[in-house]
Specification:
Layout lengths: L1 H16 L3 E9 L25 E4 L5 E8 L3 E12 L5 E9 L7 E9 L1 E7 L5 E14 L2 E12 L5 E5 L6 E3 L3 E3 L15 E2 L5 E2 L4 E8 L5 H22 L1
Antiparallel strand pairs: 1-15, 2-10, 3-9, 3-11, 4-8, 4-10, 4-15, 5-6, 5-9, 7-8, 11-12, 13-14
Helix pairs in contact: 1-2
Length: about 250
């Protein structure tokens, strides 16, 4: 009897907890469809595409670049992948990063650096730069539903060259410490003194950067089916107890 009761209770708890947390790509920008020219070149474990042909923004030599992201539900961020333009053969070694509520006057929710980076070369673009996927881990950072910004700066490069965060379009907004918010509505460009906005597959334009965020999503409310199974198990436990007393 005791083993049966324990099995019922464990099954109920397992059903409620099932799917509560899992490794996932929490946010991906740009939102290019499968079949994009670079989609098959991303290393295993990363998700997204480096646009690589429109523009990029310096993330060393005193510049900070930010790109927005939106969570519709609470999630814990543990990793970042981003697209970069590097001089041929150069290697990004470390990066400083922050997650903020707004790049202008916002609150810093998490930050770190210098943080070691893993670099994978994807290809070379028409401007003669290596297009890289840069990946790094961050301490587990729990964020609620809302809009946030990922900021990158103080990149350390092996040869001391400039290195640039790829402008990939998508749904994200962009920001740069010298130029401010990057608005594609301004004369079809990201601002008055920089290059063109990136054209998205749906015809819209954006100055967001190429990146994704990885981590875990957490279910805060059990699914109705799980609640039903838990109720059934508890009823079964009650019936066993009544039979034992009888």
């Amino acid at each position: 009897m005791r083993a049966y009761k324990l099995a019922l209770f464990a099954m109920a708890l397992g059903a409620v907890g099932a799917g509560a947390a899992r490794a996932d790509v929490l946010y991906k920008n740009p939102n290019f469809p499968p079949g994009d020219v670079f989609s098959s070149s991303w290393p295993a474990g990363t998700s997204g595409n480096v646009a690589g042909q429109t523009d990029a923004w310096t993330i060393n030599f005193g510049y900070t670049v930010g790109s927005s992201f939106v969570f519709s539900a609470p999630a814990t961020v543990t990793g970042v992948d981003f697209g970069a333009w590097a001089f041929v053969g150069d290697t990004l070694q470390t990066i400083d990063w922050a997650i903020v509520t707004n790049p202008v006057g916002g609150m810093t929710l998490a930050s770190g650096g210098p943080t070691s980076v893993t670099q994978s070369i994807v290809t070379t673009n028409s401007f003669g730069y290596d297009l890289d996927v840069e990946s790094f881990s961050i301490p587990a950072t729990l964020l609620g539903a809302g809009t946030y910004w990922l900021e990158l700066n103080t990149a350390s490069v092996a040869n001391g060259d400039p290195i640039f965060w790829d402008q990939g379009g998508g749904t994200s907004m962009g920001w740069e410490s010298a130029d401010g918010f990057l608005d594609p509505a301004v004369e079809g460009s990201c601002n008055n003194d920089h290059g063109s906005a990136t054209n998205n597959p749906d015809g819209s334009q954006s100055c967001g950067m190429s990146f994704d965020l990885t981590g875990t999503t957490t279910a805060t409310v059990p699914e109705p089916g799980s609640l039903g199974l838990l109720a059934g198990a508890l009823i079964g436990l009650g019936a066993i107890r009544r039979r034992k007393r009888a």
